[in-house]
Amino acid sequence: MTARTQGPVRIVGAGLLGASIGHALTALGVDVVLADASRSAVSLAVDYGAGRAANAEDAPALVVVAVPPDVTAEVVAAELAAHPDAIVTDVASVKSAVLRELRAAGADLARYVGSHPMAGRERGGAVASRADLFIGRPWVIAAPEEAGPAWRVVEGLALDLGAAPVRMDALAHDEAVALVSHVPQLVASLLAKRLLGAPDAAVGLAGQGLRDTTRIAASDPALWVQILGANAPAVAALLADYRADLDAAIEALAEPSAAGARRSIAELIAAGGAGVARIPGKHGSSRSFASVTVLIDDRPGELARLLTEIGALGVNLEDLRLEHSPGAQVGIAEIAVLPEVEARLVADLTAAGWRIGAAE
Amino acid sequence: MTARTQGPVRIVGAGLLGASIGHALTALGVDVVLADASRSAVSLAVDYGAGRAANAEDAPALVVVAVPPDVTAEVVAAELAAHPDAIVTDVASVKSAVLRELRAAGADLARYVGSHPMAGRERGGAVASRADLFIGRPWVIAAPEEAGPAWRVVEGLALDLGAAPVRMDALAHDEAVALVSHVPQLVASLLAKRLLGAPDAAVGLAGQGLRDTTRIAASDPALWVQILGANAPAVAALLADYRADLDAAIEALAEPSAAGARRSIAELIAAGGAGVARIPGKHGSSRSFASVTVLIDDRPGELARLLTEIGALGVNLEDLRLEHSPGAQVGIAEIAVLPEVEARLVADLTAAGWRIGAAE
């Protein structure tokens, strides 16, 4: 595969994202030069094969700024000034604040294209970096009006890395990530905080619902302070609506037999169901799959044996979730398949001796 | 296996829970008689093998009331009166309100033991019923003081069904399920509701975080109105604390550069992290597992092939989660293993040609 991206590519910030981009481009034969405020971070990323250390003679065609959100605008401005022939992009998870700071600083926005690879994991460092990090992930490209065709260079970068480019302006991006990432993070933290003072016996009743709703609460406070601070207006706007609905729920529960209280709760639950139905499934579709639950003994190879049989039946697994209950030596595999194969799969697995659990 | 439970067992309510209990007891050779306000529901459950239809001559040793929460107390009272030699239990997901109503009605509480099998799925009907539904799940037993040793009969029932009995008083139960089930449900609904008016492009950026935090929002409004209404005080108390923290977050985001604002957000995220760390993992322990991410092509048998290799390496899978990104033809399997086998697993899988993704 020939890279769309022309080198040298200068990557500033040799953490998880920067080093992962370096790995992927290096694998494509692109000349990658690495810079970081920490010299040891550069050495580490070079050791891991993410590129070579930058020197004064480098004349980058593209600069990728992969530093913490707090300092992104400042570093982008410096790179635009230092490399007047280069296109500069950044990978920060907020876009409007960066653009606003660059405008205020009088930066050359004809050569700046903001971007945000939705690579999921926000922690890591070069040690955790992988060329595969971006495969199949959305990569938002938010070019200012001044940038003209420069966004195509960043689109090429995203495609080179196996990501799916999505064009959006900075404000739309920030509102979108407030909705799909920043508010969920806060809500999960607010919910998980309730567990702090709870009795062990209560926490011991936790099931998959609580696990799912709080999983992302295990996040890095220092990073999230920056992200939430930089996207405060979009997050606050959503939280204001959220609080209004929360207040209505609290009011209804204060007197659950009052006129309208039950209806208020029912409408909230129904609205949540309608909202969650909007989330696209696999392959970008919102097609719903049939769910088959299979009980599996908790020993090595059992799940593999199950999935081997499913594969032998020619059935493609659309999704899979394992559930465990406290104290149980048996697991539950919840398997999503196309609805048209569900009945056959259940029949065949039952015939093969698998215990099929209750359908949802 | 000999059943601990003495029949006949009368099950009132032939829905998912009632019919599943009937299946399991019938399989153990216990005489099960089924009753339901709907005659066709009884016929269906009988057809499915959950027991036989009740008649006037039945003299049950144990009555299990498995009707909606709204009518549970009323049905329990009627069963206590109709079967003066039987112990009566119910399986409603709220316990204090039922007990309070029974006390007010002057029911014979020496023979009543409340219970709540945490069987996860709240929807279904007899069609979805399975004898395996309760295996490995906590089964809360909430006996009033008046009940004396009657709780042992319900403990025997739970054990017969493969569940893990947990004794708790009604109030502690209700506070526990408010924490681990009812508040998470409301919070997920409140969050998912935000998606209703959002642009398609924004919802299209949804990742696993949003999917997990909103999954349980797809729930039955009619059932949840009953559950939340019956447990309103415990839910409202938690929501009041939640709102206070939400208010603090909104205030901090209103002026994120103000003194104390960043600290306020950081403390919230950190508290959420500490809270989620309290949730027990598999086998009731809170031991943390190492996570290995493997990229798999999206075609039948690939995941099975991966898991077969893992099994062949003698490594037990503690948990597994599949992730898909919109539009991607590649999946990501996130595998939890004991920390001491992580390095060997990564090395062996890499040697076998698997692409290992970035660690969290």
Keyword list:
360 residues; 44% helix; eight-stranded mixed beta sheet; four-stranded antiparallel beta sheet; homodimer; 6-phosphogluconate dehydrogenase C-terminal fold; Rossmann fold
Short description:
The first copy, chain A, is an alpha/beta fold and 360 residues long. Helices cover 44% and strands 16% of the residues of chain A. The first copy, chain A, has 13 helices and twelve strands.
And the CATH topology of the largest domain in chain A?
Rossmann fold
Biggest chain pair contact, residues each?
A: A-B, 147 and 147 residues
Counting copies of identical and different chains, the oligomeric state is homodimer
One letter per element, helices H and strands E, the order of chain A comes to EHEHEEHEHEEHEHHHHHHEHEEHE
| Beta-strand fraction estimate of chain A | 15-25%
* CATH 2nd-level architecture of the largest domain in chain A: 3-Layer(aba) Sandwich
Number of strands of chain A: 12
Shape descriptor of chain A reads: globular
The largest sheet of chain A has its strands arranged as 3-2-1-4-5-6-7-8
The CATH superfamily of the largest domain in chain A is known as: NAD(P)-binding Rossmann-like Domain
CATH secondary-structure class of the largest domain in chain A: Alpha Beta
Please outline the major beta sheet of chain A.
8 strands, mixed
